[in-house]
Design brief:
Layout (H helix, E strand, L loop, with lengths): L5 E10 L2 H10 L8 H15 L6 E5 L2 E7 L2 H20 L4 E12 L4 E3 H14 L4 E3 L1 H8 L10 E3 L5 E3 L7 H11 L8 H17 L17
Parallel strand pairs: 4-6
Antiparallel strand pairs: 1-3, 1-4, 2-3, 4-5, 6-8, 7-8
Helix pairs in contact: 2-3
Length: 226
């Protein structure tokens, strides 16, 4: 076998709250597991979708999902759609994720992976994404579009920190998207600062996308009684 390193688009996706999902399902008696079937169903659906794109590979281990495809403009748009749909399917199952997408030299088989693109994608996920969003490398965006001004706004959203993430509210209507987001957010947001920040980000994302149909206000401060 020729071990050839070629440029690939590589995505690294982290399933948020995975340890608590594992703890829940492992501690519950048979028949009361909530998450393993949801995760496996989403994985099977994504695997089926990925077969529609020539040269695409998908690997899932623990709370991590790696997607890769040979570099090309058409492949960039295709993998963005696949990741966006994957993220939306997770959201419909009550699961949030974040990730990074980059490109670079890459080689993989079913049980071996050697990839500079994966290292960069992982760095974006762990250091930049922070919230439930999949951030695209600016170098990859410039490679595909020529410059940041010509980004396809139907695929990518620019946040006020200058980063671009995949728009993943892919329901058929505003009402469907609103219902999905309401299901994933508790009535009372978490007291855990890290979890709460991610929940507030989801609220802000929805409200920014649909300013005339705000799901709830995300004010950080309670009003003082006069």
């Amino acid at each position: 076998m020729e071990l050839s390193l070629k440029n690939h688009i590589v995505a690294f996706i982290d399933l948020l709250g995975f340890s608590s999902m594992v703890s829940h399902d492992c501690e519950k008696p048979d028949g009361e597991q909530r998450f393993i079937s949801k995760l496996f169903d989403v994985h099977k659906k994504t695997k089926e979708i990925s077969t529609q794109l020539q040269g695409m590979a998908l690997t899932q281990f623990s709370d991590s999902v790696v997607l890769s495809v040979p570099y090309g403009t058409d492949n960039f748009h295709s993998i963005c759609r696949i990741i966006s749909n994957f993220q939306y399917d997770l959201l419909c199952s009550g699961i949030l994720c974040r990730g990074g997408v980059s490109y670079g030299k890459h080689f993989s088989t079913e049980d071996f992976l050697f990839s500079h693109g994966l290292i960069d994608a992982y760095s974006i996920e762990s250091k930049l994404a922070l919230n439930p969003r999949v951030v695209i490398s600016k170098a990859l965006i410039e490679l595909v579009y020529g410059n940041l001004r010509d980004v396809d706004s139907e695929i990518l959203i620019e946040e006020n920190d200058g980063l671009f993430f995949l728009d993943y509210l892919n329901g058929d209507s505003i009402e469907i998207n609103k219902s999905i987001v309401e299901q994933v957010l508790p009535q009372q947001l978490s007291e855990n600062p890290s979890i709460r920040a991610k929940q507030i980000w989801v609220v802000d994302y929805f409200n920014s996308k649909y300013p005339d149909h705000k799901i709830r206000e995300s004010s950080r401060f309670n009003r003082r009684c006069e």
